[in-house]
User: Fold Tripartite-type tricarboxylate transporter, receptor component TctC from Aidingimonas halophila.
Amino acid sequence: MKLKTKILYAALGSTMLAGSAVAEEYPTRSIDMIVAYSAGGGTDVAARTLVPFIEENLPGDATINVVNRPGAGGEVGFTALANAEPDGYTFGFVNLPNLLSIPIQRDTDYDLSSFQPIADIVYDPGGFGASADAEFDDLESLVEYAEDKSGPVTYGTTGIGSDDHLSTLAFARQADIEMRHIPFDGAADVRAALMSGEIDLAGTNVSELVDYADSGDIAILGQMAEERWDGAPDVPTFQEQGFDVVMGSDRGLAAPAGFPEDALSTLEKAVEEAVSDPEFLEKAEEQNLPLSYMDSEEFGEKLERMNENIQELWEEQPWVEE
Assistant:
């Protein structure tokens, strides 16, 4: 009898342990990734390129559904992400500085504390592009041109409050020159305006200029990174040219605040393995994606620094009327 009892207890214990392992396994169902921009755009393409590699590195037969929630410069999607149930089954592809600048320039239903950082994936440094026949080809000659010009230097960006806009404001303040902002709907429109002579300067991301620089249509004056991106190794940084401007477009992953620790750990590990996959690296290079992986802790610290810097810029020079 005692032997039978011991066997029964052992069997029950094994069953309970197995049941516990199954209950704790993550994920047990599909996961939604919110993208705050339209399908087919640069952010969406980058997200959909990454997703299969994250899936491969998650336990079981995990699937991730990309859910596009565009509108209001990203605010619609960011709000949806912030208000999602923090159960481990919704996270998002977030863009910076938009995630941070929107709550600074207007009232929103979220702020930085609404999110749990997971990882930073891409840092696409800002840059200045000029037409090939412009009177300036670096930042020093741009400043000289601005000082001699009868009116302000005109520059185009992808919108008010974008990384391109904020970084150009920071540069103009440091250089003490007058510049007039002309916003466009997208990078392609900015390039077209530059090449037609409608604007003096294009403030955009370096990745959006390299192909046109290679063809000789555009000259890149500098990149706003601490180190030169491998995709543009001949383009000096702003710091190398005497201007302390480091800003660009980050594309990372974040979840609603309160995201479960086990889910965060699992996702973070899967993402780290995904971005080191040779096939993903090849696809990223094809898309001119400047990869700059950071784990959740590093990304969180970067978000805090960026938020402080953008708030300081707003207090010194608001970019929209309150």
About this structure: The two ends are 82 Å apart (CA to CA).
